[in-house]
Amino acid sequence: MHLTLTSGEQLPAGKVIGLVGNYAAHRVEMGHAPDLEALHFFLKASSALLPGGGKLFLPKVGRIEHEVELAVIIGERARRVRSADAMRHVLGYAVGLDVTARELQALAKAKGLPWDEAKGYDTFAPLSAVRPAAEVPDPHGLDIELLVNGEARQRGSTAQMLVRVPGIVERLSSVMTLEQGDVIFTGTPGGVGPILSGDRLHARIAGVGELRCDAVEA
Ligand code: MG
């Protein structure tokens, strides 16, 4: 699997990490307190990446939902990096969708099982071209939105992230080495909702890019 930069250059994709509950509005809609006590995360299968968007395949596993997210792509290897030094490890940013089989996730939560299945189906991680960090002076003040069939479903700002990019890199790199091509989905603002076969998804982050997907039955 390869990521494409906005320059057209390609880069092998590494692991894919997703953050849990990094926006208060999404925490509340999922039934949690708005504040974050600790930043938790999961690994999303790298085979789920859908670089450049395209056909998003919907398996028949109950409700499947969209989560539009700013994705951080790692450039320079990061191990136990402090937040003050974190930004130099960031290669760039992309628009991502952390597609989630919500009923499978609810079942996994109830039974104390991992989320791998709920998060890991093929094409469950559409990702736009990667905009170099030098072209994104501040990743924390960007309008982020998702339209489904032309109708706004999710709208927010990356300013609402509870833990920002430097803190995210510090936290994750304290656990696992971040390597070039690793992709971090930084959490979704509120307004998650179902994806149905035939839906046309259009995700945008101002100053980063856009991503289009067509949902079809798997
Ligand atoms: Mg997510």
Quick recap:
With 218 residues, the protein is mainly beta. Helices cover 14% and strands 38% of the residues.
Number of strands: 18
Small molecules held by this entry = magnesium ion
Distance between the termini: 20 Å
Helix percentage = 10-25%
Overall pLDDT: 97
Domains, number = 1
CATH architecture assignment name: Alpha-Beta Complex
CATH topology: Fumarylacetoacetate hydrolase, domain 2
* The CATH H-level homologous superfamily: Fumarylacetoacetase-like, C-terminal domain
- The radius of gyration computed from the alpha-carbon positions, rounded to a whole number of angstroms, is 16 Å
- N-to-C series of helices and strands: EEEHEEEEEEEHHEEEEHEEEE
* Residue fraction in strands: 35-45%
User: Order of strands across the widest beta sheet?
Assistant: 4-3-15-8-9-12
Low-confidence stretches: none
Q: Which structural class do the helices and strands define?
A: mainly beta
What does this structure look like?
The chain is mainly beta and 218 residues long. The protein has a single domain, classed as Fumarylacetoacetate hydrolase, domain 2. The chain has helices at 24-29, 102-111, 116-120, 165-173; strands at residues 2-4, 10-12, 16-20, 40-44, 49-51, 54-58, 64-66, 68-74, 90-97, 100-101, 125-127, 131-132, 143-148, 151-157, 183-185, 193-194, 200-205, 209-217. The strands form five sheets. It has a six-stranded mixed beta sheet with strand order 4-3-15-8-9-12. Strand 17 and strand 18 (209-217) form a beta hairpin. The longest helix is centred in the middle third of the chain and has 10 residues, at 102-111. The radius of gyration is 16 Å and the shape is globular. Bound molecules: magnesium ion (MG).
